[in-house]
Amino acid sequence: MTCEPLDLTGQWHGTYTYPRNYGPATPFLATIEDQAGSLFGSIIEPDAFHGSQETMEAAIAGHRAGRSVDFTKTYRGQQFGYENPVDYVGQLSSDGLSVSGVWSLIEHNGTFEMFREISLSAQVEDEASEEVHEALEL
Q: What is the spatial distance between Cα 106 and Cα 84, in angstroms, rounded to a whole number?
């Protein structure tokens, strides 16, 4: 990859879900900047809980320590029902391509997972790098 596996910088496609089918599974797009473990960025998602066609935006801030990821999502604006920040705690996969964990908000909680968006050129670069390493080990 073009960045270190632990560095979360980039775009991530994800979904968060509610327990016991309380609400719909909601897709999101996160753009994250990882500055030596300090996380900043934004999330865009549909307002699926209220059944509207609106898109909502939120700011995220948090930290990463090794593979442990912890950030808070704070919705922008004064949307009804979204005044409180949402805490996300998860674990980065060993290959650095996914994060999964739990979210919590007052009396609600659920799970989430997100996957790193990788460009085709980065995938080709990764495969070439792996082939070189394998050849050197022979």
A: 8
